[in-house]
Design brief:
This protein has 3 helices and 5 strands. The protein is α+β, with helices and mostly antiparallel strands. It binds 2'-deoxyguanosine-5'-monophosphate. The site of 2'-deoxyguanosine-5'-monophosphate has 13 residues, from strand 2.
Length: 139
């Protein structure tokens, strides 16, 4: 399995540092976030070391998604939040602080004012269409 000896999440996978483990299977691990943005904030990671989404084998991403669904349902049942975000960050512009692929399972409360939501403002349709064409050219 691909690992990075300097990666904090690889150390958690290896059991070298402790975590509040929730569930695991051969490919994925879920544990509580040590810096919770809200009560119940947890992480689902791929066990092999892949820094970002762009590096992820599709079948491993699918495995993380299955575990994220399972954990999100458990968080919802246990804590009854008003909502829940799955957040996945890649690179410094997205404020990724641990370069080992992970998904945040983030329960939300009405009025929690986490700086995650952006104001809904109508975009410029022509600009949106032009950007869509640039993305589609790479699909
Ligand atoms: P991100 O910034 O999207 O890369 O999220 C990384 C998260 O990992 C952040 O919310 C804090 C959490 N975190 C960092 N170090 C540790 C650790 O040693 N243990 C646990 N459980 N979580 C950690």
């Amino acid at each position: 399995m691909q690992t990075d000896p300097n990666c904090i999440f690889c150390k958690i996978v290896a059991g070298q540092i402790p975590s509040f483990k929730l569930t695991e299977d051969a490919a994925t691990l879920a544990f509580m976030d040590i810096n919770p943005a809200n009560e119940g904030h947890c992480l689902v990671i791929a066990k092999p070391h892949h820094p970002t989404l762009y590096d992820m084998p599709p079948e491993l991403l699918a495995a993380v998604s299955v575990t994220a669904l399972k954990v999100a349902k458990a968080v919802n049942a246990a804590l009854k939040p008003d909502g829940l975000n799955l957040v996945q960050s890649n690179g410094p512009g997205a404020a990724q602080s641990v370069p080992h692929f992970h998904v945040h399972v983030l329960p939300r409360r009405l009025g929690d004012k986490l700086p995650l939501n952006w104001e809904l403002k109508p975009g410029d349709r022509a600009a949106i269409a032009a950007t869509a064409e640039r993305i589609k050219a790479k699909l």
